[in-house]
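Please supply some protein, with fold tokens.
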Amino acid sequence: MKRSYLGVILLCVVLFLNILCTQKAVNAYYFEHYRSVIIYAVCNILLFPAAILIYRKERNIR
């Protein structure tokens, strides 16, 4: 299966944002900023479907 560079780069960006949001959520939880934890957790949850959509789009391109 041949992948386009754009799809791989977009998935890498989504992964980076996912890691970033997770780190920020853990850090905010440690310092008891619970509103920020919820915001970063929601951001993480929203990034997951975006990654699935990008993957499906790339998988169907041949």
